[in-house]
Design brief:
2 domains; about 20% helix; Thrombin, subunit H; about 25% strand; about 350 residues; QueA-like; nine-stranded mixed sheet; 8 helices; six-stranded antiparallel barrel; isomerase
């Protein structure tokens, strides 16, 4: 599979100097063979590989994801993102012609109006009516520089229910295979369908593994971050400080806040399932107003960031030069993380959304 077909440019990494420039996007590049971009998930979910990384020593270990049960302590807090992915990729045609159209719903603005990406955008001026397999919608104006449009559906239509019946999963562009099922791109604990992408670190958990973790004494808690497509947008600025971070809506429920405060006061570990949980927790604590309100976070984490909440991170392997590579490097340490990635490539780990996982402590 070529890089062009995968929708991903894996640029060669420059040699790392003795003192890396943490503000340069090139610092976070690495070499990845295209065949290691996972196209389908493994089955069962918890049979994927799990790399462990001790961020203090740089020591790396190789296990299977279900071995996480042995790595967690009975007094740990395991915090996960309970969002659900909306099957919001809808296809249809212009009512006034025969042109095929695609609408990718991103975020609900109000009852029947959504933020969306539409194709072909230039042939769908504001006011164009489209038939999305029986659902009539009107394409509105752009509301951002990155092409996001407003799309308004007929009054009374339950858009989410329509998507469940007729929509497709908004898989990231590097997944070109269509062999996976919609449920493969959902966590087993997903609740409300308000996300345009999955919190992929959670995809590895099965009901059985979660039950065993609870039985061990680990407290499992939820937050919600509604994942947007901005998570896949590359950093185009050579100096990452000029990158405009996407905004995402999130909330930490009162019960989760209370448990985290208790854990931090007694020295127990808070383990984040994925970078979306990191952004939610660290984003809330960075505001200085820690409560259970809904809030928007644009927190951009890169080396030099001071973590206040998270003590351990379960995460997938991320795209070269992405904001998620920067976040993980800030948590695990740049040199240990990059060395671990090189070892993962050498040992044939599977990368990205349907790939293998890391546990960094």
């Amino acid at each position: 599979m070529s890089a062009e077909k995968a929708g991903l440019e894996c640029r060669p990494a420059e040699e790392t100097p003795h003192e890396p420039d943490f503000f340069s996007v090139q610092t976070y590049q690495y070499d990845l063979p295209q065949e290691q971009i996972a196209q389908v998930p493994v089955s069962p979910r918890d049979s994927c590989r799990l790399m462990t990384l001790d961020r203090r020593t740089g020591r790396v270990g190789h296990k299977v994801f279900r071995d996480l049960l042995d790595l967690l302590r009975p007094d740990d807090l395991l915090v996960r993102n309970d969002t659900r992915v909306l099957a919001g990729r809808l296809t249809g045609r212009k009512i006034s012609g025969t042109a095929e159209v695609e609408v990718l719903l991103l975020r609900q603005e109000k009852e029947n109006t959504w933020q969306a990406l539409v194709r072909p955008g230039r042939r769908l001026p504001p006011g164009t009516e489209v038939d999305l397999q029986g659902a009539i919608a009107v394409v509105g104006p752009s509301i951002s520089d990155d092409g996001v449009r407003l799309v308004t559906f007929s009054e009374g239509l339950d858009v989410k229910a329509w998507c469940d019946l007729h929509g497709q999963m908004p898989l990231p562009p590097y997944i070109t295979s269509r062999e996976s099922k919609n449920d493969d791109y959902q966590t087993v604990y997903a609740k409300d369908a308000n996300s345009a992408a999955a919190p992929t670190a959670g995809l590895h958990f099965t009901e059985g593994l979660l039950a065993a973790i609870r039985e061990k004494g680990v407290q499992i808690l939820d937050v919600t971050l509604e994942v947007g497509l901005g998570t896949f947008r590359p950093v185009s600025e050579p100096d990452i400080r000029r990158h405009v971070m996407h905004s995402e809506r999130c909330r930490v429920p009162a019960a989760t806040l209370e448990a985290i405060r208790a854990a931090k006061s007694t020295g127990r570990r808070v383990i984040a399932v994925g970078t979306t949980v990191v952004r939610t927790l660290e984003g809330l604590w960075s505001t200085g107003k820690v409560d259970d309100r809904w809030f928007e976070t644009q927190l951009f984490i890169y080396p030099g960031f001071h973590y206040q909440v998270v003590d351990g991170l379960i995460t997938n392997f991320h795209l070269p030069g992405s904001t998620l590579m920067m976040l993980v490097s800030a948590f695990g340490g740049y040199e240990p993380v990059m060395a671990a990635y090189r070892e993962a490539v050498a040992k044939g780990y599977r990368f990205f959304s349907f790939g293998d996982a890391m546990f960094i402590v």
